[in-house]
């Protein structure tokens, strides 16, 4: 876990909102049409729709979040789903508490 990289990701309000929304996906996103659960996260298209930003911007945001290990991608056919990496988020919070 890289605290500096995570801080960079968290310096953007939309990326912070995405993490907040992914904490309770069933409350923040419509049900998936192709699968009946959120176990693997939320489809990129739903995240894009909620933000109102372009697909390329959301892809860039999710890529930076993935590089910081804050989200875990899962492929279902041609679609990628993202969920929070709770272990890394917990470790980050603990590191901040212990180091600052």
TrEMBL record:
Highest taxon listed in the record's lineage: Bacteria
Domain HTH arsR-type: start-end pairs: 1-100
Keyword Transport among UniProt keywords: no
Statement: the UniProt record of this protein carries the keyword ATP-binding: no
GO MF: DNA binding; DNA-binding transcription factor activity
Keyword entries, A-Z: DNA-binding, Transcription, Transcription regulation
Signal sequence, renumbered to the chain: none
InterPro entries hit by this protein: ArsR-like_HTH, HTH_ArsR_DNA-bd_dom, HTH_MetalResp_TranReg, WH-like_DNA-bd_sf, WH_DNA-bd_sf
PANTHER family per the UniProt record, alphabetical: TRANSCRIPTIONAL REGULATOR, ARSR FAMILY (PTHR33154), TRANSCRIPTIONAL REPRESSOR SDPR (PTHR33154:SF33)
The name this protein goes by in its record: Transcriptional regulator
């Amino acid at each position: 876990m890289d605290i500096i990289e995570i801080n960079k990701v968290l310096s953007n309000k939309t990326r912070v909102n995405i993490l907040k929304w992914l904490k309770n996906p069933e409350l923040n996103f419509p049900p998936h049409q192709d699968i009946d659960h959120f176990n693997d996260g939320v489809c990129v298209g739903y995240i894009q729709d909620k933000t109102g930003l372009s697909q390329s911007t959301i892809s860039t945001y999710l890529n930076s979040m993935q590089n910081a290990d804050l989200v875990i991608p899962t492929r279902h056919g041609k679609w990628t789903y993202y969920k929070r990496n709770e272990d890394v988020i917990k470790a980050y919070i603990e590191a901040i508490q212990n180091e600052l």
